[in-house]
Amino acid sequence: MKKYLIIILIVMLSITGCASNKPISTNPETPKEVENIEESPDNVAEEPVKSEEPATAEEPATAEEPATTEEPATTEEPATTEEPAITEEPPITEEPPLEATEELQIDENNILKIEGLVENELKLTLNELKTLNDIIFEADFYSLNSFGTTGYTHFKGVKLWDLLEKHALIKAEASKISIVAQDGYSMEFTIDQIKMEYMDETNPDNKYPVIIAWEENGEEYSTDEGAPYKLVVGQKEPGDVNKPQWVSNIDVIIIE
């Protein structure tokens, strides 16, 4: 037993001796650890080179991408918004020229023209003729056609000779008057024939001037059927066939 105890003591002594010898071997290593710690600031100081990468920190190109977000050219698109110029072509869509043409045609039909040997060539509308109260005449005219048919027709219009003398101012050298219809049909009269008074064989006391009528049996002529003017002439004598002289749709009165 004593031997074992001695051995144990020796072992323990040897262990404690080893433990006491360790500081000698570790002391020199301590400066190395200090040096490593002191060197670390250099490493930390040197790292800012990586952190100071301005390219990464300054990435303004990415931050300054408002140029892409602003894209005013796309939002403003004035060309698309200003397209009302195409839609606002009312003159083409409304097409009033057709109505205007119809109105012009009606006005043309409504005009009675007097030209030739006169001081004052006239283009009178129906409304203008109606204002000539001093030469308006209204009566029942007796007619006889080439087939022997007779009848009375009530007409209202203006006295032709008074229209030529007072308003167109017919010249003294004039000798012939032509009444021309829109379809080309015409009748010729001398100055004396237009100036004279006509009769009614059924009532010889009645006297009738040559008139340009716009109303027949209480109804005005329609411009849809042409110029609303008709020449009306009475009888020169009993048995006179006068109705073929009644020229309808008068276009122009020519003085020669």
Could you outline the blueprint of secondary structure elements for this entry?
Elements: H1 2-26, H2 29-46, H3 48-51, H4 54-57, H5 60-63, H6 66-70, H7 72-76, H8 78-81, H9 84-87, H10 90-94, H11 96-109, E1 111-116, E2 122-125, H12 126-130, E3 136-144, E4 150-159, H13 160-168, E5 176-181, E6 186-190, H14 191-195, E7 211-216, E8 219-220, E9 230-232, E10 250-255
Parallel strand pairs: 1-10
Antiparallel strand pairs: 1-2, 3-4, 4-7, 5-6, 5-10, 7-8, 7-9
Describe what this molecule looks like in 3D:
- The chain is of the alpha+beta class and 256 residues long.
- It has a domain at 105-255: Oxidoreductase, molybdopterin-binding domain (Sulfite Oxidase, Chain A, domain 2), CATH 3.90.420.
- It is built from 14 helices and 10 strands.
- The chain has helices at 2-26, 29-46, 48-51, 54-57, 60-63, 66-70, 72-76, 78-81, 84-87, 90-94, 96-109, 126-130, 160-168, 191-195; strands at 111-116, 122-125, 136-144, 150-159, 176-181, 186-190, 211-216, 219-220, 230-232, 250-255.
- The strands form 2 sheets. The protein has a 5-stranded mixed beta sheet.
- The termini are far apart.
